[in-house]
Automatic annotation (TrEMBL):
Superkingdom in the source lineage: Bacteria
Entries under SUPFAM superfamilies matching the protein: PEBP-like
Region described as Disordered: spans on this chain: 1-81
Ranges of biased composition (kind: Basic and acidic residues): 7-18, 25-51, 62-73
Similarity section: Belongs to the UPF0098 family.
A Pfam family of this chain: PBP
Protein name from the UniProt record: Phosphatidylethanolamine-binding protein
């Protein structure tokens, strides 16, 4: 059985999803495919540092995501980031995709360090054809916040995604691609970044130097068409 987070695991998940599409209603196909894989790969507990740190084995494959490609970046303390809508390294439900409602997913987190001045939330697709694509960007989230509900604007300042819009822009990978990975990253920083509405991903990356990041949490969803 391929390991969760591996390329072979994602390929098998997509194949199972296609097989279940042929025999069960579409709204149950994601659940059936995920259940079969999770029987062989039980979910790790929320507090597991390896789980919070994201997948392994992706270094050098992200086509531009500095958090994946640069092995010299020091690791910060992991935040615990999860969603009631999907588990780490499972398929994102169709309703969160751009073509099926473009609903933003619910998220919750804990373990924010006491010294945090603000939280920063991003969602990126490192498997996009032209390099890392930003789907969600929010800065200035109050450190006392613990999450965001479905279709709710996070309590912060909305940045501009790579569709050119403020707020959430759902997955829309090329038809026929293997399932893309969507990295939801939450950063706790020790000083206000002072970034305004409409800020772009490159500006946030420039502001998030290693000395400012106290903790980081990662949750990965998969989606293919």
């Amino acid at each position: 059985m391929p390991q969760p987070g591996s390329h072979k695991y994602d390929i098998k998940r997509t194949r199972l999803r296609d097989e279940y599409d042929e025999v069960v209603p579409d709204e149950h196909a994601d659940r059936a495919a995920n259940a079969e894989l999770q029987r062989d790969n039980p979910a790790r507990p929320l507090g597991d540092p390896d789980r919070a740190a994201g997948p392994t084995g992706t270094r050098g494959t992200s086509r531009g995501d500095p958090d994946i490609d640069d092995p010299a970046r020091p690791r910060s303390t992991p935040l615990e980031l999860r969603s009631a809508a999907f588990n780490d390294h499972t398929l994102l439900p169709e309703r969160y995709s751009r073509q099926a409602g473009n609903h933003s997913p619910p998220l919750e987190w804990r373990g924010v360090p006491d010294a945090t001045a603000e939280l920063v939330l991003t969602c990126t697709d490192p498997d996009a054809p032209n390099g890392t694509f930003t789907h969600w960007l929010v800065t200035g989230i109050p450190p006392e916040s613990t999450g965001v509900g479905e279709d709710e604007a996070p309590p912060g300042t909305l940045g501009r995604n790579d569709f050119g819009e403020l707020g959430w822009g759902g997955p829309q990978p090329p038809v026929g691609d293997q399932a893309h990975r969507y990295f939801f990253n939450l950063y706790a920083v020790d000083r206000p970044l002072g970034l305004g509405e409409g800020v772009r991903a490159e500006d946030v990356r420039a502001a998030l130097d290693d000395d400012r990041v106290l903790a980081k949490g990662t949750l990965v969803g998969l989606f293919g068409r």
